[in-house]
Specification:
alpha/beta; 25 strands; about 30% helix; globular
């Protein structure tokens, strides 16, 4: 059954950190526009409501992961998941955004009509098909599937007599008190889980196929705390935000230009953290260069403290097979386990998995160039939110939302009903995906990601400061964005 069609000026998909931020920007810049947020789950918060595993936290500081318009005032800069969820909820509640959220609306299709200059969005809601039309579509869906995490096909997995769980599906009935736990993985999730589970578990082992770059950062930012003592929250937050942006950009640039130096510094820091007798080279020295894959941080050395205390350990080896009582490794070693946590990664998914069509032609995001990392080549009146590879997700999303608002204002001022980025240059497509990392989840799903071009405006520079400067001075009529007027409609007979 299909219900009546509701029309909106702007339709946002996703009520997570990005979607709530997008709604705030839209309300501030265009208070007269109608909009709604379609959220497939029954609660807002996105990632921060979905993940419930022990120790869930940010892997970026909240002065850059937080919104530009709402200061993060908690003491901890590397914050726990419940605190971040509360921050997103408070932003939505205080801004009146919650009134615009339509829960349990899974978007399945989006169809653009050039004749009508509007989108028709199809969604499933409580077993019924509902449709909306919108002048502009903004996908704040992130880039991974909430329902299908990545789990390798482990040999012998059905033989294991204990419990196997993926962190994405963590539930309250998982009991690991006094038990031996093996966490498979070496990314941010694994490094969060391991120290967090040691308070109850008999022992926690992080089993990794290969190491990841990791360093400790203080959970609290003393400069941010000091600034807040003498300055208004907004001023202190802005200064801290730019300070952290400068550190992120600087570390990324030196990692790319002087990888050997950065490797040496990181190795020295880890030897100081773990002691001269620890095999840093085997367990914490990757074969790739820093920032080829995403860098991991641990707050207040919690992982390293657990390793030194002996409540946790790291094993670098490959899995031969699961057994009835644990995991047999290719080296012949056996890891005894009562609980196995497969922190093995995400499954990439663009635009929330919706089928997108333009005038009846299917759109495959992985076959299109990304204009400024925000719009898709050949797709009118649609933006998507994604983050930087080397910095906090929200930095880029804030820029994208501000750009969408500016684009809508430009179209209003010039009487345009539609805009679409068009590439006229041969040889523009590069080999690099939009998220330029060599992490496993990126490599597995790179065919799904929009392409980068060899130069602007089809290339993402991974530099927030330069992108923000560009945003302030860029022209909308740059020759790449093509605009068209509202379609002429026949008068309705009297």
């Amino acid at each position: 059954m299909v219900t009546d069609v509701e029309h909106l000026d702007v339709l946002i998909i996703g009520a997570g950190l990005s979607g709530v931020g997008a709604a705030h920007h839209l309300q501030e810049a265009h208070p007269g526009r109608s909009y709604a947020i379609l959220e497939m789950r029954s609660a807002l918060g996105g990632t921060w409501d979905l993940f419930r595993y022990p120790g869930i936290r940010s892997d970026s500081d909240m002065h850059t992961l937080g919104y530009s318009f709402r200061p993060w005032i908690s003491r901890k800069a590397i914050a726990d998941g419940p605190s971040i969820l509360e921050y997103v909820r408070d932003t939505a509640q205080e801004g009146g955004i919650v009134e615009h959220i339509r829960y349990r609306h899974r978007v399945t299709a989006a169809d653009w009509s050039s004749d009508e200059a509007r989108w028709t969005i199809t969604a499933e809601h409580d077993g019924e098909t509902v449709r909306f039309t919108a002048g502009f579509l903004y996908a704040c869906t992130g880039y991974y599937s909430y329902e299908t995490p990545y789990t390798p096909d482990f040999a012998g997995a059905d033989r294991f007599r204990g419990r196997v769980v993926h962190p994405q599906f963590w539930s309250d009935d998982i009991d690991y008190a006094g038990k031996r736990v093996v966490v498979i993985g070496s990314g941010a999730t694994a490094m969060t889980l391991v120290p967090a589970m040691t308070d109850k578990a008999e022992h926690v082992t992080m089993l990794q196929r290969s190491p990841t770059y990791v360093a400790s950062l203080p959970a609290e930012d003393p400069i941010a705390i000091g600034l807040r003592r003498v300055l208004p929250d907004k001023v202190a937050y802005a200064i801290t935000r730019w300070k952290n942006v400068a550190i992120q950009v600087g570390f990324y640039q030196i990692s790319r230009r002087r990888p050997a130096l950065v490797k040496k510094v990181l190795r020295t820091m880890l030897r100081w953290e773990l002691g001269a007798g620890y095999d840093v080279d085997k367990h914490f020295t990757p074969s790739y260069n820093p920032w080829d894959e995403r860098f991991c941080v641990v707050p207040d050395s919690d992982l390293f403290r657990a390793l030194k205390k002996g409540t946790a350990s790291v094993v670098t080896d490959r899995i031969a097979t699961f057994t009835e009582t644990g995991i047999e490794l290719e080296s012949g070693e056996h890891l005894d386990a009562d609980v196995i946590v497969t922190a093995t990664g995400l499954t990439l998914q663009m635009l929330g998995g919706a089928d997108v069509r333009v005038d009846g032609e299917a759109v495959a995001a992985g076959e299109r160039l990304a204009y400024r990392g925000m719009l898709l080549e050949g797709v009118p009146n649609m933006a998507f939110a994604t983050g930087y590879a080397n910095a906090s997700f929200t930095l880029k999303v804030d820029l994208t939302s501000a750009y969408v608002c500016r684009l809508l204002a430009y179209m209003d001022a010039h009487g345009h009903a539609a805009c679409v980025p068009v590439n006229d240059e041969a040889g523009m497509i590069s080999d690099e995906p939009l998220i330029d990392l060599k992490s496993g989840y990126i490599e597995r799903g790179r065919h799904l990601l929009p392409k980068q071009g060899v130069r602007a405006p089809w290339r993402v520079r991974q530099n927030y400061a330069l992108d923000r400067l560009d945003m302030a001075r860029m022209r909308m009529d740059d020759g790449v964005l093509r605009f068209s007027p509202a379609p002429v409609r026949e008068p309705v007979p009297a």
